[in-house]
Amino acid sequence: MANTTIDDPGSNEAIQVDYFVSRRGADAVVAQEVANVLMDAGYTIIVQDFDIPHTANFIVAMHHALKRCRHLIVLLTRDYDQSDFTLAEVANFLAVAARAQGERRLVVLRVDDYEPEGIFAGIVFGDLVGVVEPQERKLRIIAAAEGRSTTAPRRPKLFENIPPRDRNFAGRDSRLADLHAMPLDSDVQPGPSQTAIHGLGGIGKTSLAAEYAHRYAGQYAGVWWAPAEQRTLLVASLAALAGRLDPQLGAEADQEKAAKAGLARLSRSVMPFLLIYDNVESPETTRDLVPSVGARVLVTTRWTDWGGQAAELKLDVLGNDAATAFLQKRAGRNDMPGAKRLAAVLGQLPLALDHAATYCKLTATGFDAYLEKIDARIARAPKGAAYAASIAATFGMAIEKAAAEHKAAETLLGFLAFLAPERIPLDLVDDDIVNEDDRAEALMALSAVSLVEHDALEDGGPAVTLHRLVQAAMRARLADGGAAAAMVGRTTSRLSEAFPQEAYQEPKYWPRCAALLPHVMVLRERLSGEPGSWQAGGELLHRAGGYLLGRAAFGEAERLLRESISLGEKSLGGDHPKVAGRLNDLGLLLWEAKRFAEAESILRRAIAAGGTTHPEIGSFLNNLGLVFQATGRFAEAEPLYRESVAFGEQVFGREHEEVAIRLNNLAGALMMQAGRNAEAEQLLREAIAIDERILGRGHAKVAVLLATLGNLFASAHRYEEAEPLLREALMLGQNTLGTEHPRVGNRLYFLAQLLHATGRSGEAEPLLRDAIAIWQKAVGPEFTDAGRAHETLAQIMLKTDRPDEALAEVQTALAIHDKTLRPEHPHAKASARTCADALAALGRGDEAATLRARYGLAAPATTDEQG
Prior knowledge:
The protein is an alpha/beta fold. Among the domains are: about 15-145, Toll/interleukin-1 receptor homology (TIR) domain (Rossmann fold, 3-Layer(aba) Sandwich); about 160-315, Rossmann fold (3-Layer(aba) Sandwich), CATH 3.40.50.300; about 320-400; about 780-865, Serine Threonine Protein Phosphatase 5, Tetratricopeptide repeat. It has 37 helices and 14 strands. The strands form 3 sheets. Strands 6-8-9-10-7-11 form a 6-stranded parallel sheet, sandwiched between helices. Strand 13 and strand 14 (about 460-465) form a beta hairpin. The longest helix is centred in the middle third of the chain and has 20 residues, at about 385-405.
């Protein structure tokens, strides 16, 4: 479309140009860019900056320009929207355009990160904000001018944890295009839409993924960024995502279950989600955590061979031209020869380029002057280490600059160097690290040379983030000065002090633990090689293991607890009270995981190491009692519980929550012995009263006591008293522990037993199946309670004339009890009796009689086994 003319319905003047470009507050360069793009496309243009002489009467010139143009292009900024003059200009054009029967059009290009309101909110035809690739800008300008709306889609509502956009991002537009197209071009079919961006550290993998997230966010239902250095951290992040997708999943204690449930929910989305797993060590990290539908997964990694599990995008250093342009843009200098020389010395590595340019800009240093300083540093590096040398030299200069600005900057960076790189809570930096007066200035000095960036925690608390290679350079610097071991010790001690000790039984501390866990997992890798940190490290891993145990993450909790024991034995000795306490907690974990034989062995070790004078000996005896009770040795459990209560009274006094839980356990052992329900009830009522006074009725510990009392009433056929207690205990457990915690499975089972006993088997059956499913996921299928649930299901099926199904369920129960209990145990006998009943119902009386004889069961009183 060229320079055609039509009669202007609002004026006697003929239209002489296609577009008039109007701006206020926008860079004149953008106006010239728009003009050049449209003139290259064959359109005619008036630009107020260039086509209205300074000597002209501006108001009159604008009046004639608006009359002569077919269409008005507004470069929209906040200033433009808030100016009475420009709004009058637009209003006058719209009034004329309204009489042109669609022949004249207002074109709005957004060039400032500003959300328009009023008349502009509905007529933004194009968006140039954040668009840096020239071809993409050209396409958007032309499309907007021709009335084809290309406004970039707004970010989805869920856009979490994404690093801030790098406004100096350059030289990677073709790789972004490749990345966006990869799921369509991938040979990985069928399978998950997973793309691995791999390359050297500092090559720009994370920056590329972040730019992709910002640029293409509008094409996804949501975007979630997950740190993934270790599987534990990835699981924790995906569990947080699950909580955002479904608040009920946010209450789930077991993070791996929550994570997988959240990923499963993504399949329901009409649009796919974008998940970014940052810094994955190997494909094993993401095992079972890549949804097959509903999401695209980007992985940043140094791992080069994904063996068909993902499409692969290898990232190399920038080309020389791109590196040269980047240095000049980032430093704000026009020195192409100097930038080209410096880019070559730095190996065109984006991270090194960025920090060198930042340094040059901050200190007004020329590229050649910087090159002189860094050349000597690189020359001292070992041969063949040019990549590492350029990184170390670049960061070394930045660190020295920050330290010169403030003496505490280097100390602060040393502390940060041994933690996870993302979201380090600033409250970890106490006076023992850097005193309060120096803290803010040290942070300013570090951020000024781009060594750290300000960030925020989930709760809004202040945090900082830094690159892993900055940390590596700082650790090397400390090692060269012989100060690394001391800093590891200070960091370990501080993190140990900050990690809540009570997290095992107190879900209110879990958010704080979740924020600190990534830093524990990173520091953990350095503890075994630093003898001076063994003592504090053992305590840190013990606390973190207790948190994971509370969340029923048994595998990871066990690893941390065993490592804490090992560090304690090396630093304190095997008989130290702290080591005994950690053995006790490991025994508790093994009991919760239904590994009773291992639990008994570990707990006996704890008791032997602690001796009768250990302040926690009562807890040791209590936990061994739990193992005896779980394996049907009630007479052996009772004296341990009584001794445990006595020790608790000596240490805490009778009115204490620790004594209350031990009274609960003693009552449980009494309930399993004939004629002792009255004693048990009295102890339980006392325990509930203690905890209600101290903790309140809604506390998780009170729920344990309510469940035990409800079971006691149910066993005594006091069903009307039992049911409300069991329902309250279940509700409290779901609220505090989540819907898939193994303790919640126990309470589902207890309530189902009551419903079955009161003739409501239809309600009981789904609860039993839910309980079994929870236990299978958490601790595996073969333990006593699961056997009891299968046996109860078999009873229900016999009553509803389903003997084939009943036999299958009870045979499962009997197999479990044969492995976990002695033949004379009441649960084993109950399973054998129900199995015999199922066999008899199927006409297999001989097999039923043999089974009864093997378990010492009496024959049915009203019929023989032949039926």
